[in-house]
Every structure is written in C-alpha cells, then in structure tokens.
Design a protein that fits this description.
mainly alpha; two-stranded antiparallel sheet; 18 helices; 67% helix
C-alpha cells in the first residue's frame, strides 16, 4: 500500500492588530506679542502717535507659529470628533508645518493614514513621533504596528521591543511581537511574549491561538492542542483556528479527533484545504473510500489544489495495487491527476517517483 506524504502544515497564525487609543492632550502655549506704538512726524512738524493717526490702516501682525500650530491642532481634533478625516488631516499638516516638533500632530496624521490603509504615508508620521519622543509608548507601538502591516517585520520587532521597554505589560505589544517572531520563523524568540499575553488576558482567544501557533512551530503539539482548544472555547470558531487544531492533532496521530474537527469545519466553512486535511485524516484511519471522496470535494472547490490531486492519485494507485495490478482505469487516472499536480507545483520528488514507477 502506498502511504501518503503529509503536506506542509497549514500555518494560520492569529495576528491581533489592535490600534492603540491615544490621549492626545496638549497645553496651548501660544506666544502673544504686545503691539508697539510707533511715532511719525506730521507735515506741519507736529509729532503724533501713529497708533491713533494710523488706526485701522495697519495690518494685524501674524500670530507666532506656535500659536498657529496649537490652533490647528485644536481644529483637527474637532474635525476628528465630527468624523471629517480630510479636514482633520489638513489641520494636522498645518500644525506640523508651524511646529515640526509637535508629536501629537504626527500621531494624529499617522492615525488617519493608517485607518485608511495608507501605511506608506502613516509610517513616516509614526517614525517621526517615535524619534521626537523615544519614551512615548504609543508612538513606538503604533510605529511597530504599521511596519508589521507593511510586512517590514524585522523593523516592527525592534519598534515593539522599544515599546515594551516602556510598558512591559502591554497586552497588544506582547501579542504582536510574538506574532512577528512567528512571521520570520523564530518562534523560540516569540514564546515568552506569547506566554505573557496569555498571562495578561487568560480569556483572550487570539492570545491562546497565538500561543498555540508558537507551540506548533516548536513541535510542542500537545501544548499547542491545549491552547487551540482553549481558544475555541473562548471565542468564535474560525477556519484558521480549527485547521491549526486539526493539524496539531494529526501530528500527534490523534486522527479520529482530527477528522471530527475537520468535519465540523467543512460543515460550517468548507474549503479546499479543510477537505484535503479531512481526506488525510480519513486515509490515516484507513477509511480509503471516504478519503477519496473528501479529496475530490476539495478539487470541486479548487481544481488546482495540488495536495488534493496527490490524495486522489494515491487513493487510485492503491485501488490499482489491490486489484492485482488489473484496474488500468485507476492507474491511468492516478497518473493523470499526479501530472496535473506537478504542473501546479514542480518541487515534489515523491510524486515524480510515483509517476516514474507506475507509468
């Protein structure tokens, strides 16, 4: 009998990206200049006070830049409270032009760009705020957040660590830096942060799922299963969570539980990946006909899902072998679907070997 190669585990790291609500308080410290009285000589040689003779004829002096910046900041907040992001952004920019060291204006502008999904514009705003105030937790955290959203993960880790040096027990920063370490393939570095996030919020499903993903990446599958199950109890059952739980169960050869988990998933949220994993679990339980059915259902959703093509091919080759090498239709179809699989993903030496062996 031909045994199935396990496909690469499906990683569905749960990333919680919670925007920090900042208190952007500022003291208005406008600098007001007293108006000076000048003197002028009249045509008759009489000296008169220009403040009385030129009343109403002289332009009002421009307010100092700091005063302009603070007034713009106040208007920006009012526009934000009214939901007018475009006007708020213009006022934040005016505040920055008049006071380039006004951290809260950079943060305000960064928030608007980030909420719009304009991460390329948000990042320099947060970077400048973090540079101006290195001990400002919000500036460091939000800089890390937007860098992670831009897939600049190494840089995001450094920003998150700066934020955690200021506020070590922040839940979101611990959770996100653990996720970032998973993204770059360094789960061991993220373990302490993922664990701390769970300690801070034991009932958080995202934190439990994230810790489970770290444990899975470290091949600590029993611990991963516990965390995934706790996440399932504490929050909505998402497809990534159930797929990760099923994968961990499969790693521990707990195939009946794996199949049960995946049956629930394909009932509520069917996908090519979930049917393929169900087929793998059933095949491992020697329920070959049901496994082939699951693989074929996967292909109905995605005809190019190469793990499912391989699953069908292996099931058909086993039919051919069990027929005493007489079921030519099974052999021919098996080779056909395996060749399709190779067209989708060429780096499959085991499948190439099977094609060569049975062609």
């Amino acid at each position: 009998m031909i045994r199935m190669n396990r496909t690469k585990p499906i990683q569905a790291n749960v990333i919680t990206l919670v925007a920090l609500g900042l208190s952007l308080g500022v003291t208005l410290t406008g600098c007001f200049s007293g108006q000076r009285s000048g003197e002028a000589t009249s045509a008759g040689g009489t000296t008169t006070n220009s403040s009385s003779s030129n009343a109403g004829s002289r332009a009002k002096p421009a307010p100092p830049p700091a005063e302009v910046a603070n007034a713009a900041l106040k208007r920006a907040r009012n526009h934000q409270s009214e939901g007018d992001a475009e006007k708020a952004l213009a006022e934040f920019q005016l505040a920055i032009e008049n006071n380039p060291t006004l951290t809260v204006a950079y943060l305000g502008a960064g928030d608007i760009h980030r909420e719009r999904g304009d991460y390329d514009k948000a990042e320099p705003m947060y970077a400048r705020a973090a540079q101006l105030e290195p001990r400002n937790f919000g500036a460091q955290y939000l800089h890390g957040l937007v860098l992670q959203l831009m897939d600049r993960v190494q840089e995001s880790i450094r920003a998150y660590l700066r934020a955690l040096s200021i506020k070590p027990d922040d839940f979101d920063a611990n959770l996100n830096v653990a996720t970032a370490y998973l993204q770059i393939g360094e789960p061991a570095e993220g373990l302490a942060f993922a664990t701390r996030a769970v300690e801070l919020r034991p009932d958080s499903a995202p934190a439990r799922a994230n810790l489970g993903a770290v444990y899975s990446a470290l091949a600590r599958y029993e611990e991963a299963i516990v965390e995934y199950q706790q996440a399932a109890e504490g929050g909505p059952l998402s497809a990534p969570l159930l797929l990760n739980l099923a994968e961990a169960l499969g790693k521990r050869k707990r195939f009946p539980e794996m199949a049960s988990t995946l049956r629930e998933l394909v009932r509520t949220e069917p996908s090519a990946a979930s049917y393929e994993r169900l087929g793998f679990a059933l095949f491992s339980m020697r329920e070959y006909a049901e496994a082939e059915t699951a693989f074929r259902k996967s292909l109905e959703i995605d005809a190019n899902h190469f793990p499912s093509l391989n699953g069908v091919g292996v099931c058909l080759l086993n039919k051919y072998i069990w027929s005493g090498m007489k079921d030519e239709a099974a052999r021919i179809e098996a080779l056909s679907v395996m060749r399709r699989s190779i067209q989708v993903e060429r780096r499959q030496p085991r499948i190439l070997d099977l094609i060569s062996q049975y062609d």
